[in-house]
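Help: read this over?
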Amino acid sequence: MNLKAYERRFPTCPLIPMFVASDTVNEYKSEDEAIHVIERRCKLDIDAPRLLKKIAGVDYVYFVQKNSLNRRERTLHIEAYNETFSNRVIINEHCSYTVHPDNEDWTCFEQSASLDIKSFFGFESTVEKIAMKQYTSNIKKGKEIIEYYLKQLEEEGITFVPRWTPPVACKSESSTSHPRRPVSPAINIPESATKEGLSSKEILNTSSSPSEPTAGTPDDKLDADYIKRYLGDLTPMQESCLIRLRQWLQETHKGKIPKDEHILRFLRARDFNIDKAREILCQSLTWRKQHQVDYILDTWNPPQVLQDYYAGGWHHHDKDGRPLYVLRLGQMDTKGLVRALGEEALLRYVLSINEEGLRRCEENTKVFGRPISSWTCLVDLEGLNMRHLWRPGVKALLRIIEVVEANYPETLGRLLILRAPRVFPVLWTLVSPFIDDNTRKKFLIYAGNDYQGPGGLLDYIDKEIIPDFLGGECMCEVPEGGLVPKSLYRTAEELENEDIKLWTETIYQSASVFKGAPHEVLIQIVDASSVITWDFDVCKGDIVFNIFHSKRAPQPPKKDSLGAHSITSPGGNNVQLIDKVWQLGRDYSMVESPLICKEGESVQGSHVTRWPGFYILQWKFHSMPACATTNLPRVDDVLASLQVSSHKCKVMYYTEVIGSEDFRGSMTSLESSHSGFSQLSAATTSSSQSHSSSMISR
């Protein structure tokens, strides 16, 4: 079907205005019709400035396109190159459609192109921009065009095209070497498959008819019943993205794999762009691990002050089955809570609310028999005044919004803001820039008693569960809030001494790594054959991890320009122990091969020491290497370097020394792993001489 739809683009296509006409210049068909090669000369009206066309002396440009269809192998290869100005500009494009090796109901679509402008009357930069614009625009219309012609075929009564089978004369030979496969239905090309450049690659689920129930579990294949019951309506492209991202996590992430519903939230937050969704999901998984968020409901009890004065709580569900959270913000003393508890305790409490929301969504999915992936929040602003605009309180609110937006995307189904007073626009102006556009669309704001009229609360919540303080009949157990007694206020020093900060309530330490200023940790070993273990996450930038040994102790860190020094920054400490006058090989030696770690990766490893003395673990800024043949940086390296601002990296790390006797019988600890979330390949580094192991798995 897809090929038949594709062929209708010729000799011209109304959906591509620049495609004026095409002529067949060469065509070949094999006797068994398995091979079909057709070459066309295409006439294009490029959207370029009139002056440029006049200088170039042309109104149209011509391309040659060669399509090679192999029905036996089920492949289609498309090649195109420019005929016009071929001595000045070289354009090559290649597309291929192939059957996925692991699933014959899937089609792999790959497209790439190259542009080389040798000279063009001094307008080289302009031509490059025009080419990029035209190419990107045409790729994005690919899905729309295919769907247009598929619909046209359906209107003509053509809904199925049988798969090619060999003629009777050569049937036995073909059936021996090419076993028959199920028919592959139409290809669905997603808009999000294209990228901001001259390449795009997507693997697409192409099943256009209901699939038969599978005997496997949802972990090996998503069947129709599972999707309908737990995930909701998914297009083939969306299902494809979910399966691929989950498979990538299973192959690369050594740790708890998120449920499909959670992965789907991140995909939806980025319009099913896999690369973007993978990036924010990996950052969130690293964040959850560093701050032990998975255990917050089981290990943390909110302080009594929060239980008494935080005017929020869960209250039944809305008409769509979403859990309903009620927040009486106008009755809450935000200033008092911040002064009594600190910003970090409030943040932790909000995180526990979100974790509880995820749990309730799962429960409601089972209760209602349909997917419930988000909750509704009802915010009552009755009583909101200038006290709520206290600057530290607003600062805490903005930080909470930032953390929630980054780690709980697509969890807010609807936000009902009731009884908004005149001061509300001021607060909204402050916080709205920090809220995602998709989230803002879910806000419904009612002033005064407007929520009681048409289009109000009754449209979203059953009358029986409207809280009593909003004129309903249901008793709401949400605390009424009120002013926090000043006797409960604490100083900043007291809050810090009580160690309630979320980021420091962990065994991990934070460190900053600068260009030219690595971070180093000293470990003294008394007994040889001890085991040094490490576990660190690269939160920002790329770093090189080294292990050194010295017989003498380095000098304590000093804040001077000559020797070792220490730097304290908001993102963590930076300590340098190796003196600048030390020489590698004389004063200290390297006992491990350097390990390059990419941003987002999580690394665990161990080193069995051979000598007593002083071992130094070092995290050093990774500078992008130049290309060996041209001494110029590669494009990927340049793009990666742009993501690291101010030549600064950040790591969260934990180290421990274990006696070798405690390590015996637990070889899995020695194998360790580097379980991060980088897409880039990395190899296992193992040094038998130093009896160490450190594995990378993205």
Q: What stands out?
A: The radius of gyration is 31 Å.
